[in-house]
Amino acid sequence: MNEEQERAREVARRLILGGVPAWAITWSREGLPSFTGEGPEVSTCGWFGGRIAASGRACERPAGRGTEHPGIGKCFVHERSSGSRAEGAWLVAHVIAVELDVDPMHGLLIAVRRAAAWSGFYHKKMGEARSDDDLAPGGSHRHWVEDAERSTAALARYSQMAVSAGIAAMLVQRAQVEGEQIAQALNQAIGAVGLDVELESRLRSALRDALSAMDSPTPQPVPAIEAGPASTP
């Protein structure tokens, strides 16, 4: 982790002290975290400098607009201009960490591993299609296509954030491999016993629960956060 990433981690930690709106994070049915940037209390980018400072007003774009973390952090214009991509990644890491009661680095790796597991699972289900028509809109396997696209996009997004945050690429790759191994084992089990739709649905729920249990070991302590105003960089 370089000096800029270390600084970004500390900035993110201090900003979290001021509290992150509850709407900033939601969870998919697979247990994947998502930042949508939607809700009645959407915050703004808040960047203050340059021409904006001259106007006396901070940036009023929605927080995280155009970035990998909509709903939190700077907008794409000011994230790019201030070189603070790592800051947005660490903000996401801290919010996940608070939700799951783990350390921030582990929080991002959890997102990577879960997304990799579901992406592998859904791609295997797509492979069971008998023809391209099954994968087309209205086809019998179309829902697997949509699920695969969604989980693969999440995998790419969280992997990139982990790298931007300065988490070693080796650790990110390891989390991806672990997720893929989980998916492979599950798909092999399904194929071996020929589950019907209802049982397969129950097994998917079991996978979600197993991933959650796997991601909740005795956590490394998260630094205590006391209520107070957000600090600025």
How is this structure best described in words?
This protein has 233 residues and is mostly helical. It folds into two domains: 81 residues, no CATH class; 111 residues, no CATH class. The protein is 58% helix and 2% strand. A hairpin with a 5-residue loop joins strand 1 and strand 2. The protein is elongated. 35% of the residues are buried. The C terminus is likely disordered.
Quick description:
This protein folds into 2 domains: 3-83, no CATH class; 104-214, no CATH class. With 233 residues, the chain is an all-alpha fold. The chain has helices at 3-17, 50-55, 76-81, 85-100, 104-126, 132-135, 142-164, 169-193, 197-214, and strands spanning 26-27, 33-34.
Question: Helix and strand layout, with pairings?
Answer:
Layout: H1 3-17, E1 26-27, E2 33-34, H2 50-55, H3 76-81, H4 85-100, H5 104-126, H6 132-135, H7 142-164, H8 169-193, H9 197-214
Antiparallel strand pairs: 1-2
Features:
elongated, two-stranded antiparallel sheet, 2 strands
Termini gap: 19 Å
Query: What proportion strand?
Result: under 5%
| Biggest beta-sheet profile | 2 strands, antiparallel
Question: In terms of per-residue confidence, which ranges show pLDDT below 50 for 5 or more consecutive residues?
Answer: 218-233
Note the run of SSEs as H and E.
HEEHHHHHHHH
- For the CA atoms, what is the radius of gyration? 20 Å
